[in-house]
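Protocol step 4 of 6: record predicted structures for both targets in the notebook before any analysis. Target 1:
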Amino acid sequence: MAQVVWRAEDRYPGGDPSAGIDTRHAFSFSGFYDPGNTGFGLLVACNEERLAPGAGFDTHPHRDVEIVTWVVEGELEHTDSTGHATVVRPGDVQRLGAGSGVRHSERNAGTAELRFVQMWLVPGVFGTAPEYEVVRGIADSTPFALPRTEAVLHVRRLADGERAAVPDAAYCYVHVARGRVLLDDVALDGVALGAGDAARLTGEQQGRELRAEGGAELLLWEIHAEPAYG
């Protein structure tokens, strides 16, 4: 069992503040490259985005990547080259399977700041037809099995003192979207995680728990494979 904690302040800053885009990258991305931090299991990006009203990303392409988006606050407007035009709100899980190629844009559709987390995973098959779906108001603890991968997303919204089990998988990625949690008991050499912090866990995780302090919203990735490109 191994554990690596990445703090919010250690994320690589990106985006374009002059255009109302503030980004924090968990892994190597765009102009930032660290050969020791290119991904975790199938997860190759976990970007925290803050967009001012009207700000966004103009139409751009993707290929052979599964993109999962979780809105923390605000409204995200998505349009793509396959004809989808959607507004994604807190509680919704959006998935864009780029497959053989798709172009899309993302914009803050509201009048307040938009905050969302976008995660990219390597699929198990390449060159397939693009796919798109939104799960509206996903219920707490409902697992979202990501198609075309060996990965499952667990969304947990915990009240003060409530606990959540850590998924037992080869790779488990814990991202705190809001609030604060304790990973195991701090008195027993556990660790506290705040908003924007993440824990990368490998090996057997049976019996490990997360406990909210004052309430928390968590994104837990259960990953059972590494990327395979050939």
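Target 2:
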Amino acid sequence: MIELRTPAEIEQMRPAGRFVAEVLAETAAAAKVGVNLLELDRIAHELIRSRGAESCYIDYHPSFGASPFGKVICTSVNDAVLHGLPHDYRLRDGDLLSLDFAASVDGWVADSAVSLVVGSARDEDLRLIDTTRRALTAGIAAAQPGGKVGDISAAIAAVAHAEGYSVNTQFGGHGVGRTMHGDPHIPNDGRAGRGFPLRPGLVVAIEPWFLQTTDKIFTDPDGWTLRSADGSRGAHSEHTVAITDSGPLVLSAP
């Protein structure tokens, strides 16, 4: 079921968006060469406790997950692009790291993701990250009242295709509200003018993610982490966005 939020409810979602942005900023700043992924998860966990927030991940067990996630932040490294389960791994120079975090504050959820390079960066990694960021910007700009979900999808895909990247549509954006994942699904490729209407009050997570040389993925033996089929690297950018009468409002902006 798709729910539309009142202007007052959208205002109530702002603290969740700010908190998610703060956690991503702190964990990204801590992501240095030699830092363990479990330490990044610990930092996020401590911030959740200190804020009195609730994790959307720790008990999360959808049909595609092998078991409850058990951690509070997704840490996807190099050929991992989504749902990276934190484990005993120390970041190395040149690693491409994606951080995806969602939390509930006062009963409202926000969801956001960033990608970065740890230490020395390769040009092709920076280009991939920049493409996801520009695709996110394009998707947000297309999230206009009176439009359709396909407008967002088409805008994202146009940026990816212009850079020569193919697009996987198995996982994409989604509704956000009292829970982390809801309708509508927002694929990262589609046709403008098609799909669910973008009405004021609709709140969604828009999340382009691309792989360098494939659009095929597989699930790691940990039952969660999604990796590229050919070992190429991936990047991911995401914001929680409310559709308002005056246009898109980014709730998870730093």
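Step 5 preliminary note on target 2. The chain is about 30% helix and 25% strand. Helices lie at 7-30, 37-51, 123-141, 149-162.
Proceed to step 6 after PI sign-off.
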